[in-house]
Design brief:
Two copies of one chain form a homodimer.
Chain A (H helix, E strand, L loop, with lengths): L6 H12 L6 E5 L12 E2 L9 E2 L3 E4 L13 E9 L13 E5 L11 E4 L3 E4 L2 E4 L9 E2 L10 E3 L7 H9 L4 E5 L3 E7 L3 E2 L8 E2 L2 H11 L3 E8 L3 H14 L2 E5 L6 H12 E6 L3 E2 L5 E5 L2 E6 L3 H19 L9 E4 L4 E2 L5 E8 L5 E3 L7 H6 L2 E5 L5 E2 L4 E4 L3
Parallel strand pairs in A: 5-6, 13-16, 13-17, 14-15, 17-21, 19-24
Antiparallel strand pairs in A: 1-12, 2-11, 3-10, 4-6, 4-7, 5-9, 8-9, 18-20, 20-21, 22-28, 23-27, 24-25, 24-26
Helix pairs in contact in A: 1-6, 3-6
Amino acid sequence: MLSVLSKAQAVQTVLDKTASLSLSIENIELSEALGRTLAADVVAAENIPAFDRTTVDGYAVIAADTFGAGSAVPAQLEIVGEIHMGENADFSLKSGQCVRISTGGMLPQGADAAVMVEHTDSEEGLCLIYQSAAPYENVTRKGEDICCGEKVLKKGSVITAAQIAVLAALGVRQVSVFCKPVLAIISTGDEIVQEKPRLGQIRDINTDLLAAAVRQAGCEVYCYGAVKDEREAIDTALEACLARADAVLISGGSSAGTKDMTVSIIEARGEVCFHGIAMKPGKPTIFGMVAGKPVFGLPGHPLAAYFVFRLIVRTYIAARLSQAPDMPHKSGVLAVNIPSNHGREEYLCIQYNEEGAVVPVHTKSGVISVLSAAQGFIKIERNAEGLLKGTVVDIYAL
Amino acid sequence: MLSVLSKAQAVQTVLDKTASLSLSIENIELSEALGRTLAADVVAAENIPAFDRTTVDGYAVIAADTFGAGSAVPAQLEIVGEIHMGENADFSLKSGQCVRISTGGMLPQGADAAVMVEHTDSEEGLCLIYQSAAPYENVTRKGEDICCGEKVLKKGSVITAAQIAVLAALGVRQVSVFCKPVLAIISTGDEIVQEKPRLGQIRDINTDLLAAAVRQAGCEVYCYGAVKDEREAIDTALEACLARADAVLISGGSSAGTKDMTVSIIEARGEVCFHGIAMKPGKPTIFGMVAGKPVFGLPGHPLAAYFVFRLIVRTYIAARLSQAPDMPHKSGVLAVNIPSNHGREEYLCIQYNEEGAVVPVHTKSGVISVLSAAQGFIKIERNAEGLLKGTVVDIYAL
């Protein structure tokens, strides 16, 4: 049996062993891009806006023509026409001239400001301007929003609605994204059934839980189903999953000896990189490489399986997708003391109480109800003896 | 023209006018349920676990038989067998007896505790127990995780991986969810084009932006496309959208007079409920009911269109789906003073600086780059004259 690693060592081992694995890239329609991960930086190929635009309804002017204007001494400018929305203003404004313009309209050459209609009067082809305009007042300059050549989106970004707007503005209708990694799930245990359980049996929870978590992490999932704790059955399942997936999750049955069986199956087909992480929950985690693909042995306990997925497997997924590392979601203040002296990094499901302070999800040994009730989780360092009431803690999203 | 409402009045009007509209319900497979919204409470039809289970590898005992046991005076119990994982323990333990058991195994009748194998020795059919066990020590009792008859999930919940685990544990393979509302999008403006823009024109951004936002809110989207600011064209688009969708979003062109055209089109076909909200951005928002369906007139400016979607349209969607109202995401400390004296509720895109404090997204008049760079937004109350550096502000997710 290999030595137990710290969580940081375990994550580093997974990242090192899988560093050379790369995902395929595909080009997809912009309309399908929400939530996918960019496979390359996006550099603006044009200016946004592509021309100087007004931000008000009124008159395009040469700012210098309005200097000194006020309500007592308006500037008088000749109205030489109107620029309609969407029209190319392909003429030059000369000193002493102005032109009618609507919000978003293109400034003609020479014009360098716009005056709101509320600060003007017009009669017989003349415009009276009651307020001086500074250069580029009420104007969005060419390239001011996005500048041609600027890196606007980074490789590894999970595409949001706002980023879709950026791509639409630039006319990018096809987006280069990483193909979704495929993760396979095997749920093992002599007591685990997918049909109605008899007394002494329980339903398979981990297949559905992990499948949803895998999808939420932006991956495809292949569910092999529940398998008894028999060497040949698990080995056959592993082989089938390796043929279909980029990585395999084997959530272990809880019977004694099963974990060693998983270790020995992985060893027979490839390499076991570690067995055991000094974290709670999640101690009996196994990680190996088989046929160049990562195989994760997760605890059978659903809460533990979920945390190992969240903290270890998701780090692997994020690295493959070039995503930024996991950050705390927010911080909160503990409403109670939390004891801990386990000598392993501990992860605890939390809720907010009525005052908005942080409390652990109350439970004796509930499993599924804890995870379902949790509004996030906190980490207690390996050497901490616990956390005192009033401590400000980082809270991570589940 | 109708009077300008406060944002709260606008939201209330939308909710009142659409209160009687209900969504259809469909039953879907549990594997498809992630992110969908529950259409009914889920009440547990069984106990989880369905039987008393051990949480350790060791021996199932009658706790009273171990009282007073210690390393010097171990309790001696007769080992009467072993309970295998998944097996129904259909016999009764008598005083003086114990049985081998693995983590997750079913306790036989009479047994009320489990002793870890580490605290025992066994020889010739006898088990020596070196530590006294309290009643129900190392045991998860029947119904302790979820109790039969307990309401485990609430109508209106957006289904998470953890909730899928709860449903899987209870054997619920079909889930009753709300059908996704269909929202149609029309983007209007003489300067808006979907092909490569000529000088003076700009690309349609709002169709893609709003479509992504609609999908993210758990709805289906129908994109009508870009339409010129012509009464007949917009009216035809509205009619086509009403035939296909539960609600219609018309993002207005920015040309003067367009908003009044949208108002008049809605008026001709139904009722305009308000035109104008005292919020920034988002002032020129229109809301009406046509053929029993809500029609939202959004500003043409993409940032403003997005905020109106986020604050008004999403409230309508959430109400239809029985979802809980929008809550701040977290709080933060302002790194700078933020002036504001607009007399309207103001919404501002924010980022975190290197120290984790909150700063507005720096911009002169950028539009798309602001939204894309934002990590959330804050609200400045209508009567506030701004916010001082150091103020703790609520931050909402975009």
